[in-house]
């Protein structure tokens, strides 16, 4: 059975997602759409010329009509974040861009699962839900899946452990108000904060005590640091988005921190942000209400309030 993906936006993120999909055989057909048709043609051609060494795939530039029968549509188009600019600064500009795209793409791919990647991702996910008229399960944002990957990588560095053994999450906004619910984090089923003390090694005292503030600062500032140094972030987010697509195509539900609409979960309503969602072949099939302590619940609400402060000044 074919796996068709349409990517809207041929910038650094969109084209890197297309390339990563081709190399890893995640899709069998990829359509790249961009307002700059020359750019999408060039990106598709560049990738296509290397696919003889990859799993079979058809990849080409196209228009909205070519998105027909897409299984997944990935939205990366929008104004990119500049050095020193927060994701939320982009809100109204990228909301307007998203609103202009919605009727064009949903006309041809009404049954696709939509993965929103452009920033501010939580607000654009909310926009897509409010303006598209599509069922809620078909819409999700990449949310804090990249933040969660950064968190696990940093913890793995602390303890010199394979990051596959690390299970921890970033909740809330994909941005400055995100936070780590440390009470949920484990390494090999041992609570993260107890892991060092549980080691039987005689030199465990050489392992540093995990500094929560340092780790969370690392997560929040990573994107800005990369943008300041190389102008954009695209490799890690592309791998993260491809992971989402791979899980959708796998046929088995997977838990992940992606941005989804909330309707009473954790006391939140009519807002899209990241907690643990269950994602599979039908899109978002549910949520895992992992138990948060009172402080973590408070942080989640603060993150929601941060998003609302911006949303109150945006015209959807």
Strand-helix topology:
Blueprint: E1 4-8, H1 12-24, E2 29-33, H2 37-48, E3 58-61, E4 72-75, H3 91-108, E5 113-116, H4 121-132, E6 139-141, H5 145-159, E7 166-167, E8 186-187, E9 190-191, H6 192-198, H7 212-230, H8 235-250, E10 254-263, E11 269-280, E12 283-287, H9 294-311
Parallel strand pairs: 1-2, 1-4, 2-3, 4-5, 5-6
Antiparallel strand pairs: 7-8, 8-9, 10-11, 11-12
Helix pairs in contact: 1-2, 1-8, 3-4, 5-7
User: What series of H and E elements makes up the topology?
Assistant: EHEHEEHEHEHEEEHHHEEEH
- Helix-and-strand structural type: alpha/beta
> End-to-end distance, in Å?
37 Å
Radius of gyration: 20 Å
Q: Report the mean per-residue pLDDT as an integer.
A: 94
Bulk shape: globular
Total of helices: 9
Count of extended strands: 12
Low-confidence stretches: none
């Amino acid at each position: 059975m074919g796996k068709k993906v349409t990517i809207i936006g041929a910038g650094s993120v969109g084209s890197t997602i297309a390339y990563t999909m081709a190399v890893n055989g995640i899709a069998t057909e990829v359509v790249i759409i961009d307002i700059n048709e020359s750019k999408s043609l060039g990106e598709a051609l560049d990738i296509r010329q290397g696919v003889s060494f990859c799993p079979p795939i058809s990849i080409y530039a196209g228009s909205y009509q070519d998105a027909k029968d897409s299984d997944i549509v990935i939205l990366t188009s929008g104004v990119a974040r500049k050095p020193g600019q927060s994701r939320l600064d982009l809100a109204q500009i990228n909301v307007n861009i998203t609103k202009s795209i919605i009727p064009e793409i949903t006309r041809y791919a009404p049954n696709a699962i939509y993965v929103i990647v452009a920033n501010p991702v939580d607000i654009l996910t909310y926009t897509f839900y409010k303006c598209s008229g599509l069922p809620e399960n078909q819409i999700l944002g990449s949310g804090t899946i990249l933040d969660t990957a950064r968190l696990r990588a940093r913890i793995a560095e602390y303890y010199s452990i394979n990051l596959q053994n690390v299970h921890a999450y970033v909740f809330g906004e994909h941005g400055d108000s995100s936070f780590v619910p440390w009470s949920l984090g484990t390494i090999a089923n041992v609570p993260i904060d107890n892991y060092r003390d549980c080691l039987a090694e005689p030199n465990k005292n050489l392992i540093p005590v995990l500094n929560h503030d340092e780790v969370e600062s690392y997560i929040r500032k990573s994107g800005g640091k990369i943008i300041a140094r190389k102008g954009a972030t695209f490799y890690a987010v592309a791998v993260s988005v491809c992971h989402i697509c791979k899980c959708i195509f796998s046929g088995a539900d997977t838990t992940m921190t992606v941005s989804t609409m909330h309707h009473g979960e954790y006391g939140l309503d009519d807002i899209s942000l990241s907690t643990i969602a269950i994602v599979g072949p039908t899109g978002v099939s549910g949520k895992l209400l992992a138990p948060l302590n009172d402080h973590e619940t408070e942080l989640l609400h603060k993150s929601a309030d941060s998003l609302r402060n911006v949303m109150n000044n945006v015209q959807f």
